[in-house]
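Box 3.1. Reading complex inputs
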Amino acid sequence: MNDLIMLGHGGGGRLTTDLVHNLFLKNFQNSHLEPLNDSALLTIDRKNLSFTTDSYVVSPIFFPGGDIGSLAVHGTVNDLAMSGARPLYLSAAYIIEEGFSLKELEKIVISMATTARSAGIEIVTGDTKVVPKGMADGLYINTAGIGVHEYGPPLEPQRIKKGDAILINGTIGDHGAAVITAREAGFSESRITSDAAALNHLVEKMQKSSIKLHCLRDATRGGMGGILAELAKQAHSYLDIEEKSIPVREEVRGFCEIYGMEPLFLANEGKMVIFCALDDAEKALQILHSDPLGENAAIIGRVTEVDQETGRVIMNTLIGGERIIDQPTGDLVPRIC
Amino acid sequence: MNDLIMLGHGGGGRLTTDLVHNLFLKNFQNSHLEPLNDSALLTIDRKNLSFTTDSYVVSPIFFPGGDIGSLAVHGTVNDLAMSGARPLYLSAAYIIEEGFSLKELEKIVISMATTARSAGIEIVTGDTKVVPKGMADGLYINTAGIGVHEYGPPLEPQRIKKGDAILINGTIGDHGAAVITAREAGFSESRITSDAAALNHLVEKMQKSSIKLHCLRDATRGGMGGILAELAKQAHSYLDIEEKSIPVREEVRGFCEIYGMEPLFLANEGKMVIFCALDDAEKALQILHSDPLGENAAIIGRVTEVDQETGRVIMNTLIGGERIIDQPTGDLVPRIC
């Protein structure tokens, strides 16, 4: 099995990290790719730009709180915003299975247009491919995006400092739970709604304040737990988080009990972890609370060490224990985005 | 059938044009998208950039003269070069079918890396998704690209002038014939090699000369015939071309006789039509002939009228007749790129 691609290679966990290092990074090596952030930092004519891409293969295509089209806009907008860039332009490329409904395609395109407008970006170029029936699962969308840096240096893991506060802008696991429920039980059965949202305006509010922001990362594949473990490694830092401070909806907790999953590793599409100077944590929280996308925001932990050989995330559990949070190996839930 | 996506919607012919106008342009409307060139022209901080995207779904994945990886680099590099931009950065996003061979993936990634290096661009960001077995056909790749304009205003159909010469940089139909032969008869049976190549260095040679270049377009899906018909419409021009001047390889001619196809509508991946001032046509031809990618270049026609209500391509045939060349309706050959 070792020489075949497994679902886990696309899951955003350790198998993905290995593939990226041993295959892509090794062969494509260049200074823009090496930091392995969600977007590449480019300098054109002394202007700092971010450039990113993501393909979306979510199943089902329509789910409570969004669809593959809105997701394809939100996801790429967020990847740009996380680097501190203002998202400006998107591309949209469609791989459509022969026999797909034109009406559904139109619904998705309208959803992308509406989402793009409210995020303040333009979809400026595109491509359409059709593959024979049985060669795709309805529709896959790729979006690539360009953003421009207007608020100082790019945000990146390397800027995380000892003592930094760690925040999350709201409840975790909503997207994963919504998509899985829609897939397993059907759209109409689901009482959980995806949190999919464009975070760029909320990020801009923080950037325009005097807060010393150091790093942002959207907690998509791998969930908040997986993302923190990855960041800890990239930043060679020890992160301590408090389980009791992590906001989780009752419905998501119930869902996790039924399916034997953990909110910590469920995907989000409108949540980010925020690293800022400890002194600014309360102010950051105020800004977050004043926005609908941050109303359930919380301070969940802090950075206890930096410059370590390797990274580590420790969670102080509800029952008073300590638990190491690591990247999941493979794919807990395939086709979540 | 009208409300379902057909293979022809992805064929680059009239069905694709209709879909783009009635769905994407209508909903995404903005000034960058409207010209419907292969790349969008963006201005960031008074710097002109081109931005483009394409997904590659070619079958088979390996064919004489290339593979899906080299194609994904060549195709997007060429889209940028056609606008007059110097290609700088690429993204690469993979949708991989569960069970795909890691060894084949590595071969393709190495091919992309080699191709990118020789085209002088960097692959700076990427994404990997894995879909369950049966939900894709091995591997699909999306590349998006950014280029910068350094040689005056962008090249576009609107700059085509009455009297302009029309050139092609070599034999047509090679890519289409190579892929179809590999698909139908098997890789080893094929004596025809794809022309897939990065055209940016050749374009740069012309830009650095004193030639008054007006428009370039790579003759991919729809072939040279389809591309000329599309350009004639976009430029509201009448184009006259001479069948006897169009270079076609003997093997491709033979292939077309067997399969009942026309070289004019077969895809190319290293061919472009070139519109330049008539006085410069001979000089352009010299430059093309001095380069391996232009050694079979020819002047094939000229622009007889502009500012017409609609466009038109007339071909003076070998037997002395006149034939109107129109965009093919749908997909003559699916999954050619």
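In summary: The mean pLDDT of chain B is 95.
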